[in-house]
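Hi W., the zinc ion complex you wanted:
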Amino acid sequence: METATSIPELSCPICNADLPLAGDERLGESVYCTYCGAPGILVGRDKNDPETWDIEEDI
Ligand SMILES: [Zn+2]
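Structure:
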Protein backbone atom coordinates (compact mmCIF):
# COMPACT_ATOMS: atom_id res chain seq x y z
CA MET A 1 0.00 0.00 0.00
CA GLU A 2 1.39 3.34 -1.02
CA THR A 3 1.18 6.33 1.23
CA ALA A 4 1.23 9.72 -0.39
CA THR A 5 3.00 12.62 1.21
CA SER A 6 0.86 13.52 4.14
CA ILE A 7 -0.92 16.78 3.62
CA PRO A 8 -1.92 18.42 6.85
CA GLU A 9 -5.40 19.68 7.40
CA LEU A 10 -5.25 23.43 7.32
CA SER A 11 -8.04 25.71 8.31
CA CYS A 12 -9.33 29.02 7.09
CA PRO A 13 -7.93 31.95 9.11
CA ILE A 14 -11.28 33.69 8.80
CA CYS A 15 -13.97 31.13 9.47
CA ASN A 16 -11.88 28.20 10.66
CA ALA A 17 -13.40 25.83 8.12
CA ASP A 18 -11.21 22.99 6.94
CA LEU A 19 -9.20 23.83 3.85
CA PRO A 20 -8.19 20.59 2.25
CA LEU A 21 -5.15 20.92 0.00
CA ALA A 22 -4.85 19.10 -3.27
CA GLY A 23 -1.17 18.56 -2.60
CA ASP A 24 0.16 20.47 -5.58
CA GLU A 25 -0.07 23.87 -3.98
CA ARG A 26 3.09 25.89 -3.61
CA LEU A 27 4.17 28.27 -0.88
CA GLY A 28 3.10 31.83 -1.52
CA GLU A 29 0.16 30.68 -3.56
CA SER A 30 -3.28 32.03 -2.92
CA VAL A 31 -5.85 29.58 -1.71
CA TYR A 32 -9.51 30.31 -1.33
CA CYS A 33 -11.72 29.05 1.40
CA THR A 34 -14.43 26.93 -0.12
CA TYR A 35 -16.72 27.90 2.71
CA CYS A 36 -16.48 31.70 3.09
CA GLY A 37 -14.47 32.45 -0.05
CA ALA A 38 -11.79 34.36 1.84
CA PRO A 39 -8.38 34.43 0.19
CA GLY A 40 -5.40 33.13 2.09
CA ILE A 41 -1.73 32.72 1.41
CA LEU A 42 -0.04 29.39 1.81
CA VAL A 43 3.01 29.82 4.00
CA GLY A 44 5.49 27.42 5.46
CA ARG A 45 9.03 27.01 6.67
CA ASP A 46 9.90 24.21 4.28
CA LYS A 47 8.38 24.01 0.83
CA ASN A 48 9.04 20.30 0.72
CA ASP A 49 7.46 19.61 4.06
CA PRO A 50 3.69 20.14 4.10
CA GLU A 51 3.74 19.54 7.83
CA THR A 52 5.13 23.07 8.24
CA TRP A 53 2.51 24.69 6.08
CA ASP A 54 -0.16 27.05 7.23
CA ILE A 55 -2.64 29.48 5.79
CA GLU A 56 -2.25 33.15 6.51
CA GLU A 57 -4.90 35.74 6.09
CA ASP A 58 -4.37 37.69 2.88
CA ILE A 59 -4.63 41.33 3.90
ZN1 LIG B 1 -13.33 30.55 5.44
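The chain has one domain: 10-57.

W.
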